[in-house]
Amino acid sequence: MDNKIISFGKYETASILINAFIIKILLGLPQLLCQRVGSAAWIVTLVSGLLFLLFVALILKLYDRFENKNIIQIAELLAGKPGKWICAVLILLPLLFKGAITLRLAADTINLITPYRIPSLVTAVLVGIVMVVTAYRGVEGVARMHALLVPVIIAALIFVALASISSFRLSNLFPFWGLGQSAVWKESFASFSIYTDAIYIFLLYPYVKSKRLFRRACVWGTILAMVIQTGIVFSYVLTTQYPENAALFMPVYQVSRIIQFDSNSQSIEAIFYPVWIISSLLYLSLSNNFVVEILGQVSETRYEKLFIIPVAAVMFVVGYLPPSVMDAMRLSSRLTLLLATLTMLLPFLVLCAARFKYKRRD
Fold it and tell me: Predicted confidence band at 135 (pLDDT cuts at 50, 70, 90)?
């Protein structure tokens, strides 16, 4: 992993972070928040996003002393080879799990929302083949694809939000605090854990051309993702009424189904198909690439691409351990706190400890 050979700029980095953060909006986050806080779901999204932005700012401040190093390299500086291996394993596990669950959800939901009734396993195999082929392009190739396709995803989401304006009902925003002010504040802090893909901030640094570009990409990527998330949840709340909006699977898709420009036109749900497929494929390709890169870094081999197919196979097997897609979603929800600990708290503590160690040495 040599950033002199593999490097990209702020647009690619920001695009990676945006897609990693907003993919949950496409799947079911608005529905989950409406279940917990009712009509105040958009407030929770905004507050948790602002909290995460502060977290990102703190990470970037701590990173000042460790330019062009990812969290595994920092763990090695902190505790030698054992620290490197332990940190790598603890990061690989959630990356593999999140990739596996996303593969299962992508395969099953593509089968559910598209008019083509292809068996889930067949869809998963096709998605896996695309993921493997993409992985051979390396992290830089995946980053370029993010820069090209994420603006398309953003444009489609903005289009859906604007097209749904005719269905807005201001009364859906009330009661303003939804199921209660205490529930809103409690859920705002609890929903901070939805940003488990913050792990990519700790992994991307060596690939970015400069510290200035990395900082700008992380800040603006987080801000844009927060704005998109809040805007989509706000539109969802305005378009659907509680408790109906607490029961709709894939909320953005459901909103797109009810949008019609006139009495003779069809709904615009077809716009959601490519958006979900592109977003999930980008995310899976990114997960596969970074798992492979970490394995290559730990094993210190020049032939890390040999891991691509085995990693994809592991994701496939793990993804289909739950009996159904709903079981997979429930499992992911139950493990949210553990995932947040491994992908956010652990790297943050490693970074703090390394910063303290080198500050004392100075």
Answer: confident
